[in-house]
């Protein structure tokens, strides 16, 4: 099945990188091949499309080990692995892809890898004998794995960028918190908060790619990333749930997927965010006053289940309605007794004091 050239999806690229990440058996074998400067052509998968291209070779069906992969690479033919890259199926095979499939590669090994990947859609790995480079091919995708030192430097630079983005995002959320308690939010304020959250997630996804490239060498990068993105995804989802025009599960899920998958030039436009959230197009719509439902604020009250938050929003419709409710009003909501009602009122007062200093409150 021929596959046209294109850009890999993040999920596809991550799956490819996981398979050859440092610390895996396959990567140890590849590193041994690079050290010995022998070169290799490896196909991961034994689909009918792949087997139709195999001529000769000998069948092994044995467990993959770094030593076996290295020794078998000394022969001229290709090596076929199982789809999970745990077993060596065939060694010293001749691959005969369709020669009419266009390829921009020059060397015989890499041109064959490119054509086999395009014809079958399976992952093909080419190790250059002269340049000590690992190149991945899948469908029409080509990805050259950089040296670990290069990837680590890029990851550290991305972490610095993420730290700055996280700081800007936190400032936007703090501003939104204050406006929510004062009931002065416009759609523009919401769009800015959403954009900042999306940008943090986008940089985080880039760092995840580096982590998979680094494999066992990326433990510290993984720990730093986890600290920088703590609660970002959950709070971003609650932000969408607070302000989406139609708060049904299908609309929320669709908005989430569209925001996080949108091209960068589109997602940087606040008007596009408003459209994804279900509001009409046009610059004037950003000045529209909006009120949060209260999910994000209620999530910051300790030991308050999401089911209870759902009941509160269903009863009072908005954060302002919940703020204006008396303790007795709260007590009438399913799942809330007298003790929890007092805890909610206390929690909301504490959050408001943190968000809006007394001297800055409207009417103060």
Topology at a glance:
Blueprint: H1 10-19, H2 25-36, E1 40-44, H3 48-51, E2 54-55, E3 58-63, H4 66-73, E4 78-81, E5 87-95, H5 108-120, E6 123-127, E7 134-138, E8 141-145, H6 148-181, H7 187-214, H8 219-228, H9 232-243, H10 249-261, H11 264-267, H12 270-276, H13 295-298, H14 306-316, H15 319-324, H16 327-331, H17 338-355
Parallel strand pairs: 1-4
Antiparallel strand pairs: 1-6, 2-5, 3-5, 4-5, 6-7, 7-8
Helix pairs in contact: 1-7, 2-4, 6-7, 6-8, 7-8, 7-9, 7-12
Which value, in Å, is the CA radius of gyration? 27 Å
User: What gross morphology would you assign?
Assistant: elongated
Please tally the β strands and state the result: 8
The helix content is 40-55%
Order of helices and strands: HHEHEEHEEHEEEHHHHHHHHHHHH
| Class by alpha and beta content | alpha+beta
How far is the first residue's CA from the last residue's CA? Answer: 70 Å
* Chain-averaged pLDDT: 91
Poorly predicted runs of 5 or more residues: 1-5
Major beta sheet, specifics?
A: 8 strands, mixed
Q: Helical element count?
A: 17
How much beta, percentage-wise? 5-15%
């Amino acid at each position: 099945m021929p596959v046209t050239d294109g850009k890999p999806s993040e999920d596809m690229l991550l799956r490819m990188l996981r398979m050859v990440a440092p610390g895996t058996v396959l990567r140890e074998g590849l590193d041994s091949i690079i050290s010995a400067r022998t070169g290799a052509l490896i196909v991961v998968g034994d689909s009918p499309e792949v087997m139709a291209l195999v001529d000769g070779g000998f069948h092994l069906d044995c467990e993959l080990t770094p030593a076996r992969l290295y020794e078998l690479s000394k022969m001229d033919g290709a090596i076929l692995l199982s789809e999970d890259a745990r077993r060596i199926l065939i060694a010293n095979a001749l691959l005969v892809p369709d020669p009419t499939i266009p390829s921009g590669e020059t060397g015989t090994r890499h041109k064959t890898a490119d054509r086999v990947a395009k014809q079958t859609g399976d992952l093909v790995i080419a190790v250059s004998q002269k340049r000590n480079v690992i190149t991945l091919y899948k469908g029409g995708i080509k990805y050259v794995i950089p040296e670990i030192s290069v990837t680590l430097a890029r990851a550290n630079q991305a972490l610095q960028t993420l730290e700055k983005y996280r700081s800007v995002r936190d400032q936007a959320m703090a501003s939104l918190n204050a406006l929510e308690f004062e009931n002065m939010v416009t759609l523009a304020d919401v769009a800015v908060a959403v954009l900042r959250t999306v940008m943090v997630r986008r940089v985080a996804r880039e760092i995840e790619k580096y982590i998979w490239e680094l494999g066992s060498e990326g433990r510290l990068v993984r720990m730093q990333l986890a600290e920088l993105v703590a609660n970002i995804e959950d709070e971003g989802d609650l932000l969408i749930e607070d302000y989406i025009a139609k708060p049904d599960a299908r609309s929320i899920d669709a908005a989430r997927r569209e925001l996080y998958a949108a091209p960068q030039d589109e997602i940087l436009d606040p008007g596009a965010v408003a459209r994804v959230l279900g509001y009409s197009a046009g610059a004037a719509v950003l000045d529209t006053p909006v009120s949060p439902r209260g999910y994000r604020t209620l999530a910051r009250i300790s030991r308050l289940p999401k089911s209870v938050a759902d009941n509160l929003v269903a009863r009072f419709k908005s954060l302002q309605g919940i703020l204006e409710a008396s303790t007795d009003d709260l007590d009438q909501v399913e799942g809330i007794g007298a003790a929890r009602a007092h805890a909610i009122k206390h929690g909301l007062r504490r959050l408001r004091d943190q968000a809006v200093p007394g001297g800055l409150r409207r009417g103060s």
